[in-house]
TrEMBL record:
This is glycerophosphodiester phosphodiesterase. It is an enzyme of class 3 (hydrolase). The keyword Transmembrane does not apply. Belongs to the glycerophosphoryl diester phosphodiesterase family. It catalyses: a sn-glycero-3-phosphodiester + H2O = an alcohol + sn-glycerol 3-phosphate + H(+). InterPro entries: GP_PDE_dom (IPR030395), PLC-like_Pdiesterase_TIM-brl (IPR017946), TAT_signal (IPR006311). It comes from Streptomyces sp. R41. Pfam families: GDPD. Residues 35-359 form the GP-PDE domain.
Length: 362
């Protein structure tokens, strides 16, 4: 099938531009199948996110790293959930014994109503079961609702090591500290607990990469001298909450300039921008001209792993959509080819199987 003329020109430009982009740094280049495939919350496109099934399926189908988002319990255990508010990702609402726990809180300046991990002990959370977060988008995943418990970070580490042995390759864990400023304000700091777990498990640089949207959280991890790479995640609007709440006017846009990238390189090894920060999408939903971010980051000595790659039409630029259904799969392979051609060092994806197939060229 001949590509759409506009899409074809973009793909050709991306491939031609690869030589002009700085080569991936040593750690990525040494990996036998770079760019790396990061299983976003496991394989969230195929299983309810942050479950043992999602992580296992992600690794079975090609993920090199698996991503657990970290939030604390009331007794300060680190568990893996996309957010500390868990009504969308667990069956908590169906547990009458926890009805009174529903409340409203202000998290990172936003009012949020629901049930929160910090109001439950680990033992209580273990009585809940995971459900699909996007049931209207991924109805196929709802068949797994109620089958998996909430995992601790330690359990994810144990699972990654077991999967590494089974598959004969090192599977890294890629924990993200979620809302670290908020949790610090209520006496449930994430960084000391995470550092202790990294030390206890003797996680090395090939087994663990720590990420956060908040620079101060990463700097606190850096001060622990754990020897693991750090990944600065970058949003598309505003600035990191830790900076905003302290009166620092630095925005994510500022952080993606050559000056901002040099500052990130002083404490981190990677940046994780939204994929549209590398190839913008216009008001019409179509692909624009690639920005200099990738080349600028490589020039600063940073590796780059954009997020989040998904297969459904609603998450793809119009160039790669197929059919008319928002939840139908589009041409995800063309999107991976575009970013691989530009020279990214990793992709963060809900569909690690598709990313791995695209990487193999098969």
């Amino acid at each position: 099938m001949t590509p759409h003329p506009r899409r074809r020109s973009i793909l050709l430009a991306a491939a031609a531009g690869t030589a002009a982009v700085s080569a991936p740094t040593t750690a990525a280049a040494e990996h036998p199948r770079a760019p790396l495939v990061v299983g976003h919350r496991g394989a969230a496109g195929w299983r309810p996110e942050h479950t043992a099934a999602a992580y296992t399926y992600g690794v079975q189908t090609g993920a090199d790293w698996i991503e657990p988002d970290l939030v604390p319990t009331r007794d300060h255990a680190l568990v893996v959930r996309h957010e500390n508010e868990i009504s969308q990702t667990t069956d908590v609402a169906s547990h009458p014994e926890f009805t009174a726990r529903r409340t409203t809180k202000t998290v990172d300046g936003r009012s949020v109503t629901g049930w929160f991990t910090e109001d439950f002990t680990l033992a209580e959370l273990k009585t809940l079961r995971a459900v699909e977060r996007l049931p209207l988008v991924r109805n196929r995943n709802t068949v797994f609702d109620g089958r998996h418990e909430v995992l601790t970070f330690q359990e994810v580490v144990d699972l990654a090591r077991r999967l590494s042995k089974e598959h004969g390759r090192t599977i890294a864990v890629f924990p993200e500290t979620k809302h670290p400023t908020y949790f610090r304000s209520i006496g449930l700091e994430l960084e000391p607990k995470l550092a202790a777990l990294i030390r206890r498990n003797r996680l090395g640089p090939r087994e663990c990469v720590v990420q956060s949207f908040e620079p101060t959280s990463l700097q606190r991890i850096a001060a622990q001298e754990l020897g693991v790479p750090l990944w600065q995640a970058l949003g598309t609007t505003g600035g990191p909450y830790d900076l905003v709440s302290s009166g620092d006017p630095t925005t994510y846009k500022d952080m993606m300039t050559p000056t901002g990238l040099a500052k990130i390189a002083a404490y981190a090894d990677w940046i994780g921008p939204d994929k549209t920060s590398i190839v913008p999408v216009g008001a019409d939903g179509g692909l624009g001209t690639p920005t200099p971010l990738l080349a600028d980051a490589h020039a600063a000595g940073l590796k780059v792993g954009p997020y989040t790659f998904r297969a459904e039409n609603q998450f793809l630029p119009t160039d790669f959509r197929r059919g008319t259904g928002a939840n139908d799969f589009g041409d995800a392979f063309a999107e991976y080819a575009l970013y691989y051609g530009l020279g990214v060092d990793a992709v963060v994806t809900d569909f690690p199987d598709l990313a791995a197939i695209a990487r193999s060229g098969s």
